């Protein structure tokens, strides 16, 4: 059973509506930058007067097109993203003036080299870990280089004032996003995890940050009221936290199923979750340094070592009163697949909670097996 | 009151009737192509034996991959909970249940009589009963004959992790003139290795217990036990573990 509001707009509707808005923006001369990852300093894109749009592939439709060029045994997110681009079936890719990406995982960075043949792709050199002696310094240099690249490609000038304004605006968006996520801390949860996940992904198709903030604030206020009136004091269903790989592409196969099978999805410890929102960009120092510091702190499994992810997970398990953890591992995502060893150990041994990893891709072929695993996991929690 | 457990697997459908103290009826039917039809046959079969699933005096839990087709069930539960429960009852205690079924291989750790952790094979039939079935077919023997041949052989190495590729490996070994005994031994060894590897991802228990269709074969259990370096128990009722668990859980939860 899913609790969805009456005016709920699913992801594909939001994606479609965004096309028209983006087309209008383009016609008015607005520049568009296609992005893929939480590591992208979107403040820089905003300061350049352009709009960032997420191009992360979440559908298995374009995967056959991608497999003409990419190995079959590769992460579905990478194949889907490239497939949309190479088959020219994503209007957002089409409208993008350039692509901005980072050397995150091996699969992505090598795919970006191929994407560059389709459209100019600037790849920021993200350090492989935070603790290296040159990590922050080189990432800071990458911010300065990005300024030049954006100015040249988009024929604009980024002033320090523009950048400071963009930082303040994005920090406000982060606070609004975090407040929305934290509705999941209420017990019983008044909001479906399916809705949370949909809103977060759909929001990348809203190009006015103020509008995004307003949408989030309004929904948060409604849900708080709804909790007081209809949920407070009532019994709760088992509360599940999702961790691991990006979950947008398996929203129906996994997140929806978890809730339909009788649990509440209350927290997301992955790149679309609150972990990146909690941590703001410092507003009182060199803005390029502040951006470098903030974006280097993101605790994706591409970082080595990555103890910060375990710390963040521990905090979330307590704050969201979690009963069980399900980790999503997209096929051939080595960094999350390997790190799942540490996550499992932490969750089961230190936190004493049930844990299950689900390895899957974007296809529908394992729906039955996934359902059995989720049902069994929930029976064990019960 | 009677408690009925129905476990519709991909190959066989198992039914147990439990009266609260002992098993009073058990039977196996082939699943066939339609779980719904199988569920109907089970209902008829039960009625003939004097058990009416629609009566107020009966509680039914269905499990297995065809569980949703049992429309007359009072509750459905997954194979994990049911195999955990039934396996532990047959094992008389805690341990790790290894269920090698037609489509899935499950590793279930049971503590205090309840399933607490589980693992299932990847989206692939290597390391399941299906693998043996396909290979037996390729070798032109039935499953029992395959095990009989395998015991006399020296296992060749089958390296592929995928049933389809493993089948072509087997074909090339046939082409190379290897003996049937050695090839069948290699086939069994390949499943044993896959199952043992999956089992080794759970903490080593005091007791391993093999359930599912392959538990009927002593040679398989023996090889598995050698691979795991520990005794692997089986029992006559091993194939009924899921159905028994479902019946016991019906008695526990649906009184």
Mean pLDDT value of chain A = 95
Measure the end-to-end span of chain A: 17 Å
Low-confidence stretches of chain B: none
The helix/strand series of chain A, from N terminus to C terminus, equals HEHEHHHEHEHHHHEHEHHEHEH
Tally of strands of chain B: 10
Can you give the helix content of chain A as a percent range? 40-55%
Task: Name its key features.
heterodimer, A: 382 residues, alpha/beta, Rossmann fold, four-stranded parallel beta sheet, 8 strands, B: 255 residues, Nucleotidyltransferase, domain 5, five-stranded mixed beta sheet, 8 helices, 40% helix
Chart the SSEs and their pairings:
The complex is a heterodimer of chains A (382) and B (255).
Chain A: H1 11-27, E1 32-35, H2 42-47, E2 51-54, H3 63-66, H4 76-86, H5 91-95, E3 98-102, H6 106-115, E4 121-124, H7 135-153, H8 160-181, H9 193-202, H10 209-231, E5 239-244, H11 251-260, E6 264-269, H12 287-296, H13 307-319, E7 324-330, H14 334-350, E8 355-360, H15 367-381
Parallel strand pairs in A: 1-2, 1-3, 3-4, 5-6, 5-7, 7-8
Helix pairs in contact in A: 1-9, 4-6, 7-12, 8-10, 9-11, 11-15
Chain B: E1 2-8, E2 12-18, E3 23-30, H1 35-48, E4 58-63, E5 75-76, H2 79-91, E6 95-100, E7 105-111, E8 114-120, H3 129-139, H4 143-150, H5 163-175, H6 180-199, E9 208-211, H7 218-228, E10 232-233, H8 241-253
Parallel strand pairs in B: 1-4, 4-5, 6-9, 9-10
Antiparallel strand pairs in B: 1-2, 2-3, 6-7, 7-8
What would you note in describing this structure?
- The complex is a heterodimer of chains A (382) and B (255).
- Chain A is of the alpha/beta class and 382 residues long.
- Helices cover 50% and strands 11% of the residues of chain A.
- Chain A has a domain at 11-159: Rossmann fold, CATH 3.40.50.
- Chain A contains 15 helices and 8 strands.
- In chain A, the strands form 2 sheets. In chain A, strands 2-1-3-4 form a 4-stranded parallel β-sheet, sandwiched between helices.
- In chain A, helix 1 packs parallel to helix 9, helix 7 crosses helix 12 (287-296) and helix 8 packs parallel to helix 10.
- The radius of gyration of chain A is 20 Å and the shape is globular.
- Chain A starts with 10 loop residues before the first helix and ends with a helix.
- The mean pLDDT of chain A is 95.
- The N and C termini of chain B lie close together (8 Å).
- With 255 residues, chain B is of the alpha/beta class.
- Chain B is built from 8 helices and 10 strands.
- Chain B has a domain at 2-81 and 241-253: Nucleotidyltransferase, domain 5, CATH 3.30.420.
- Chains A and B meet through helix 15 of A and helix 2 and strand 8 of B.
């Amino acid at each position: 059973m899913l609790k969805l509001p009456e005016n709920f707009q699913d992801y594909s509707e939001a994606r479609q509506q965004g096309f028209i808005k983006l087309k209008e923006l383009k016609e008015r001369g607005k520049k568009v930058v296609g992005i893929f990852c939480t590591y992208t300093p979107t403040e820089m894109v905003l300061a350049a007067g352009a709009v960032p749009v997420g191009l992360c592939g979440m559908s298995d439709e374009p995967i056959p097109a991608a497999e003409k060029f990419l190995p079959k045994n590769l992460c579905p997110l990478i194949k889907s993203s490239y497939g949309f681009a190479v088959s020219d079936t994503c209007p957002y890719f089409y409208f993008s003036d350039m692509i901005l990406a980072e050397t995150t995982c091996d699969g992505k960075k090598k795919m970006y080299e191929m994407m560059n043949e389709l459209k100019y792709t600037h790849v920021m050199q993200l350090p492989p870990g935070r603790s290296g002696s040159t990590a922050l310094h080189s990432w800071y240099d990458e911010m300065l280089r990005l300024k030049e690249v954006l100015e040249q490609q988009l024929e604009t000038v980024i002033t320090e004032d523009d950048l400071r304004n963009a930082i303040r605006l994005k920090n406000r968006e982060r606070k609004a996003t975090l407040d929305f996520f934290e509705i999941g801390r209420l017990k019983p949860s008044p909001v479906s995890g399916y809705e949370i996940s949909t809103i977060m992904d759909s929001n990348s198709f809203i190009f006015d940050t103020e509008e995004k903030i307003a949408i989030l604030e309004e929904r948060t206020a409604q849900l708080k009221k709804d909790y007081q009136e209809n949920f407070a004091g009532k019994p709760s269903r088992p509360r599940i936290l999702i961790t691991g790989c990006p979950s947008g592409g398996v929203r129906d196969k996994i997140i929806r199923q978890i809730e339909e099978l009788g649990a509440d999805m209350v927290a997301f410890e992955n790149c679309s979750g609150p972990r990146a929102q909690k941590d703001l960009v410092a507003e009182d120092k060199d803005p390029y340094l502040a951006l470098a510091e903030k974006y280097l702190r993101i605790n994706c499994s591409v970082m080595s070592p990555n103890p910060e992810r375990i710390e963040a997970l521990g905090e979330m398990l307590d704050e969201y009163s979690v009963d069980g953890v399900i980790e999503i591992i997209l096929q051939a995502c080595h960094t999350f697949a390997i790190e799942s060893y540490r996550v499992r150990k932490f969750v089961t041994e230190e936190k004493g909670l049930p844990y299950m990893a689900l390895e899957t891709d974007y296809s529908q072929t394992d729906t039955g097996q996934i359902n059995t695993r989720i049902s069994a996991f929930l029976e064990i929690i019960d | 009151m009677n408690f009925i457990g129905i476990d519709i697997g991909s190959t066989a459908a198992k039914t147990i009737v439990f009266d609260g103290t002992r098993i009073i009826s058990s039977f196996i039917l082939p699943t066939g192509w339609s779980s719904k039809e199988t569920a109907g046959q089970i209902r008829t079969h039960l009625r003939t034996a004097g058990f009416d699933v629609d009566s107020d005096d009966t509680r039914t839990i269905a499990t297995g991959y065809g569980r949703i087709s049992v429309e007359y069930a009072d509750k459905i539960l997954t194979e994990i909970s049911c195999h955990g429960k039934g396996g532990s009852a047959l094992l008389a205690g805690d341990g790790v249940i290894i269920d090698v079924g037609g489509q899935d291989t499950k590793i279930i750790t049971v503590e205090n009589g309840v399933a607490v952790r589980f693992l299932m094979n990847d989206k692939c039939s290597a390391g399941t009963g299906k693998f043996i079935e396909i290979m037996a077919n390729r070798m032109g023997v039935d499953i029992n004959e395959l095990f009989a041949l395998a015991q006399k052989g020296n296992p060749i190495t089958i390296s592929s992790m995928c049933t389809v590729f493993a089948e072509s490996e087997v074909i090339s070994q046939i082409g190379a003139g290897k003996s049937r005994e050695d090839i069948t031994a290699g086939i069994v060894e390949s499943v044993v290795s896959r199952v043992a590897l999956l089992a080794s991802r759970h903490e080593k228990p005091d007791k391993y217990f093999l359930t599912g269709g392959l538990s009927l074969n002593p040679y398989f259990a023996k090889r598995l036990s050698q691979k795991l370096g520990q005794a692997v128990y089986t029992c006559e009722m091993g194939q009924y573990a899921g159905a028994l668990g479902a019946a016991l859980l019906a008695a526990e939860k649906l009184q």
